[in-house]
User: Fold this.
Amino acid sequence: QLQLVESGGGLVQPGGSLRLSCAASRSVFSPRTFGWYRQAPGKERELVASISSGYNTNYADSVKGRFTISRDNAKNTVFLQMNSLKPEDTAKYFCNSGLIWGQGTQVTVSA
Assistant:
């Protein structure tokens, strides 16, 4: 069973940066598409970014130009580099592949 474990969340000031990591538990990593989602209190979960096995990427309009998704197949890890963070980026961020979800990591952007 594939398992996903996120890390890298935390508290950051507006304008700051964070790098989230999603580690997969076993090496079936390469053929899969991975996505980062986020959910703020009282809001629906939304797709932030995704990356295919062919390294094609897709971003929500709200994060284009600020966030970058990448993957390291050798390390079975997906990353989300988040720059120029805004208070509205505050949410719990989840890694996803197919029907598999991680437990999430909290990102809080506040002065």
Notes: The CA atoms of residues 51 and 75 lie 15 Å apart.
